[in-house]
Design brief:
Number of helices: 2
Order of helices and strands: HEEH
Distance between the termini: 43 Å
Radius of gyration: 13 Å
Shape: globular
Helix content: 10-25%
Structural class: mainly alpha
Strand content: under 5%
Number of strands: 2
Strand order of the largest sheet: 1-2
Length: 91
């Protein structure tokens, strides 16, 4: 059995979960598409698949040779920016 993990419009938390799932599951061997998570203060690419001009995580994901690098910090490897949660809150 073969599988892929694709993202659609997740913010950094969802992208981190997708990356960890893909990296930890042996049957995930088909290339997929996960949007590039980046924050406005540190854009990592202008040409790769990114859906937003900003994100609610504190750091952009590392992007090298057309690949996102799986975050290696505790948990999913991302931290939430509380100020951006307030900034983008809609209700």
């Amino acid at each position: 059995m073969r599988a892929d993990v694709n993202g659609s419009a997740e913010f950094g938390v969802g992208n981190a979960a997708n990356l960890h799932l893909a990296a930890s599951t042996a049957i995930v061997d088909v290339p997929g598409t996960i949007p590039v998570t980046q924050i406005s203060e540190n854009p990592v690419t202008k040409v790769a698949g990114h859906k937003y001009t900003d994100d609610i995580v504190t750091e952009s994901f590392t992007y090298e040779d057309g690949h996102l690098i799986v975050p290696d910090k505790p948990g999913l490897g991302v931290e939430i920016d509380d100020k951006k949660i307030e900034k983008y809150r809609t209700g």
